[in-house]
């Protein structure tokens, strides 16, 4: 019981930190510093939460599922990371970069959430629709 409470607390802490990082990303992006926002957020995700965004988008679905489980990421975390990957994809598309890998990474995360979650959100549906539109 105590072990489960500790893990629950760690997951909640992870959610708060991840939420702040994503909010800071959108704040910097709004200021027009998209490249800096991506660099800072990626570095903070790596150093603070041990989440490697570049590795996240390279992983195949089965490896991604294992990675998610090893990091104790829950639905909300995956939704936040999917939104973040989508935003990177939008930026990459605007500079003729490799947006496809970012959109596919976001889609793979949402696919995993859809498989394991009992709930669905309008935000998730909307994000998936936007990702699929970008992948066409």
Percent range of helical residues: over 70%
N-to-C span: 48 Å
Give unreliable regions as ranges.
none
- Please give the radius of gyration in angstroms: 15 Å
Task: Please state the average pLDDT score.
Answer: 92
In terms of DSSP E residues, the strand content is under 5%
Helix-strand pattern: HHHHHHH
Total DSSP E strands: 0
Number of domains: 1
Structural class: mainly alpha
Q: Main sheet, how many strands, which sense, barrel?
A: none
Total helix count? 7
Which of globular, elongated, flat, extended, rod-shaped describes the shape?
globular
What would you note in describing this structure?
- It is a single chain.
- With about 140 residues, this protein is an all-alpha fold.
- The chain is built from 7 helices and no strands.
- The chain has helices spanning about 1-30, 35-50, 55-60, 60-70, 75-95, 100-115, 120-135.
- Helix 5 runs antiparallel to helix 6 (about 100-115).
Please describe the structure with a list of short key phrases separated by commas or semicolons.
136 residues; mainly alpha; 0% strand
